[in-house]
Amino acid sequence: MKYLEYTPLDCINDFLSDVNLGERTIKGCLEAYSCKHTGTDKKLSLSLDYEILDYLGKSSDTDSSSPVEYLSSRSSRKTLIYLVLTLYHMYPDYDFSAVKAHQFFTEESWDSFKQIFDTYMFEASKEWVKKNEGSPLLDTLYKALDEVVKLAECEIYSYNPDLDADPFLERGSIWSSIFFFYNRKLKRVVSFRFYCLSNLAAEGFLTDELRYEEDDEIFNDMDM
């Protein structure tokens, strides 16, 4: 997977780097990747494929909750592996399981994405309009994504892991969403993570840090 630079994504990323709304801050990041293997991708891809095939060999398709039918398709496995490889590039220190990750991916439509975006990014969108005096944030996002991955040809996936399997969880996190826009023909994927953090929790964390530093200074000054 090769990281791709696109100017249309940059202006949105600059805006979403820090949208301060008083008691909370909304952040977001768009990243585009080519699905061509680079570096250790090939080895990792083979490892993920082996993991899936091993799982299929031990599973029974009589289990209604089993993803056997989906994973039995080579095309579906390939898509899943690309999505997991994208997660690895976003969070290289986290060990993702392909089979477990599959349970957290949901295929979406642009309308379902739009509904989630409008709900969670309503206030951020108002800030965008104030600063840009024109096109709504969602329209700008649509045009940028369409330029990079041609939305009409895209498969859209959301990723919603359990709390104990969420590499994106941060201190003070209120909510978090991540979507993938995958164009099979172009072999290109764009990830879009947007999330909300409590400024109060962040400030409390900083206060604790300062207090611990002060305590360390006091103990260091004492003659033991």
Automatic annotation (TrEMBL):
<keyword id="KW-0378">Hydrolase</keyword>
<keyword id="KW-0678">Repressor</keyword>
<keyword id="KW-0804">Transcription</keyword>
<dbReference type="GO" id="GO:0016787">
    <property type="term" value="F:hydrolase activity"/>
</dbReference>
<comment type="similarity">
    <text>Belongs to the MAF1 family.</text>
</comment>
<dbReference type="GO" id="GO:0016480">
    <property type="term" value="P:negative regulation of transcription by RNA polymerase III"/>
</dbReference>
<keyword id="KW-0805">Transcription regulation</keyword>
<dbReference type="GO" id="GO:0000994">
    <property type="term" value="F:RNA polymerase III core binding"/>
</dbReference>
<dbReference type="GO" id="GO:0005634">
    <property type="term" value="C:nucleus"/>
</dbReference>
<keyword id="KW-0539">Nucleus</keyword>
<dbReference type="InterPro" id="IPR015257">
    <property type="entry name" value="Maf1"/>
</dbReference>
<protein>
    <recommendedName>
        <fullName>Repressor of RNA polymerase III transcription</fullName>
    </recommendedName>
</protein>
<dbReference type="Pfam" id="PF09174">
    <property type="entry name" value="Maf1"/>
</dbReference>
<dbReference type="InterPro" id="IPR038564">
    <property type="entry name" value="Maf1_sf"/>
</dbReference>
